[in-house]
Amino acid sequence: MLSPVIEQALNDQIAMECKASFVYLAMANWCEQEGLGGCAEFLYEHSDEERMHMLKLVKYLNGVDGKAIIPNVSLEQQSWSDIRSLLEEVYEHEKKVTKSIHELVAVSQEQKDFRTLNFLQWYVDEQLEEEILVKDILDQVKLIGNGPQSLYYINKELEKRANAPEEEEEEA
Ligand code: FEO
Questions:
Q1: For residues 38 and 83, is the Cβ–Cβ distance under 8 A?
Q2: Domain-by-domain residue ranges, the chain?
């Protein structure tokens, strides 16, 4: 039997993944308008991944006889001052998601909800990968700077990462 506490916590996580998906979509849109096609491709892909994270939670919650709620999303921002601040925002957002997943794990332990605990392990690993990826990109951007010439390389680098073959993702 699913506890209301877990149901609420999973719905909060659904809202967070959904928000991330739309924020990264807005970022991709801005990059495309700025002529940063490689950055846009990377962020469009990342937006799709967040949607997959959301769907996986929706299907799990409905599958264990809970009621998933699809949230309304409002975006506070549609443009960014530069690519470095945009990537810093992505990194901060990922750290927030990681914290939220860890809290969800703690709640599942408290509630002795072992199947949710087991389900969440995938998210714990996924968040670690995402944080490492974004930090690595951000470190490179800090190293080569944010000027117009560096932008060419940043764009190329993100294009490369967007096209990099990925390990098989689990079905949402
Ligand atoms: Fe699904 Fe990157 O948080």
A1: no
A2: 4-171
